[in-house]
Amino acid sequence: MDSTFDAMQFDDRFVRELPADPNTDGRRRQVLGACHSAVMPTPVPAPRLLAWSRELAQSLALPPELVESEAFVRVLAGCGIAPGMRPYAACYGGHQFGNWAGQLGDGRAITLGELILPDGSRQELQLKGAGPTPYSRSGDGRAVLRSSLREFACSEAMHHLGVPTTRALGLVTTGDDVVRDMLYDGHPAAEPGAVVCRVAPSFLRFGNYEIFTSRGDKDTLRTLLDHTIRHHFAGLGEPGPERYAAWYREVCERTATMIVGWMRVGFVHGVMNTDNMSVLGLTIDYGPYGWIDDFDPNWTPNTTDAANRRYRFGQQPQVAAWNLAQLARAVLPVLPGSNEAGAAALQEGLDAYITAFERDHGAMMAAKLGLDALRAGDDARGDAALIEELLAVLAATPTDMTIFYRRLAEVPTAVDASDSALLEMVRPAYYDDAIDGRVTARMVAWLRRWSARIREDAVPDEVRRARMNAVNPKYVLRNCLAQLAIDDATAGDNSTLHSLLAALSRPYDEQPEFERFAGRRPEWARNRVGCSMLSCSS
Ligand code: AMP
Ligand code: MG
Question: Catalytic annotation on 461?
Answer without folding.
Answer: no
